[in-house]
Amino acid sequence: MDLASDEHVLFSGHPSWRSTLSFYLKGLLVVIAVAVIADLIDKTSTAVLLGLLILAVVLVVGFVRRIATTYTITNRRLNIRRGIVSRRIQEARLERVQNVNTSQGVIERILQVGKVDFDTAGTTDSDFAFRGVSQPERVARAVDEAQREHAQQERSADL
Question: Which has more confidence, 40 or 102?
């Protein structure tokens, strides 16, 4: 992300590793199911090798999905960057952010992860959210701090 001369980063991060636990658990269930089916079909070590191969793929995919997503808050904008080979970037200027909502389910509260959802003015992109972030309240406070700093810079520029 290229920053303007008077722009600085207030928060930058990835989804928490704890947020990928459900993905890993689902992958583990698939591994078990495939290994059981392979064992029923063929009583050799193929089931174990196939299970280990699928488990390795699940671990790598989960890790890459987490690392390939970057959330950034500056004193001017919010930015979501996804992807390694193909890239998707979502960006919203701070003055367009109208509401910042955090949500956590029971499991997410236990894992201390959650979703920070941003309502932005004048956009049809209704899916602008930082998902799986550690301590979502801290992220919401960073946005509030960024908005206050941005408003102060705007007032200083008007003088």
Answer: 102
